[in-house]
């Protein structure tokens, strides 16, 4: 789990079918020593793990990614320059599982867009 170490939740609201969370990234986390020294960038796999963990918390049950229909990394996140990131996750129960749309952004900058199925 990345929560509590790689990032912390600063605010969170949940409505039916949507959770909106602001997280604060830990720029001192050891992962940034290798990704990349003097130019830290949040790895895409960490962005996916953040979505998974926040969805798990919203649904109050374990979830596993089944299908990534669309995963777009639009801008890099430098945790030193942008420590706060807004994560919006919309989810809907379907026969195949939870249909999920998620974005990671801050102000006018979108870092990632995701559409897929979790079960």
TrEMBL record:
Q: What Gene3D superfamilies does the record tag this protein with?
A: Hotdog Thioesterase
Q: Which Pfam families match?
A: ApeI-like
Q: Which SUPFAM superfamilies match?
A: Thioesterase/thiol ester dehydrase-isomerase (SSF54637)
Which superkingdom does the taxonomy of this entry point to? Bacteria
Q: Where is the ApeI dehydratase-like domain?
A: 12-94
**Record's protein name:** 3-hydroxyacyl-ACP dehydratase
Q: Which organism is it from?
A: Chitinophaga nivalis
The beginning of the lineage is:
Bacteria, Pseudomonadati, Bacteroidota, Chitinophagia, Chitinophagales
């Amino acid at each position: 789990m990345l929560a509590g170490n790689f990032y912390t939740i600063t605010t969170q609201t949940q409505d039916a079918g949507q959770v909106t969370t602001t997280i604060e990234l830990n720029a001192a986390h050891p992962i940034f020593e290798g990704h990349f020294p003097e130019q830290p960038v949040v790895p895409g796999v960490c962005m996916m793990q953040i979505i998974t963990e926040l969805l798990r918390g919203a649904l109050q049950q374990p979830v596993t990614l089944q299908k990534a229909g669309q995963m777009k990394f639009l801008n890099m996140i430098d945790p030193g320059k942008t420590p706060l990131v807004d994560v919006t996750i919309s989810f809907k129960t379907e026969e195949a599982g939870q249909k999920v749309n998620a974005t990671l952004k801050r102000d006018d900058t979108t870092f990632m867009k995701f559409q897929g199925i979790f079960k």
